[in-house]
Amino acid sequence: MEEYRHFLKEVLIDEDTLQKRIKELGVQISSDYKDCDDLLLVCILRGAFIFLSDLSRALSVPHSMDFMAISSYGSGNRSSSGVVRINMDLTTNISGKNVLIVEDIIDSGNTLSYVLDLLETRHPKSLSVCTLLDKYERREVNVPIRYTGFKIPDKFVFGYGLDLDEIYRNLPFIGVVDLEKYEG
Ligand code: IMP
Ligand code: MG
Question: What number of CA atoms fall less than 13 Å from residue 17's CA on the CB side?
Answer without folding.
Answer: 11
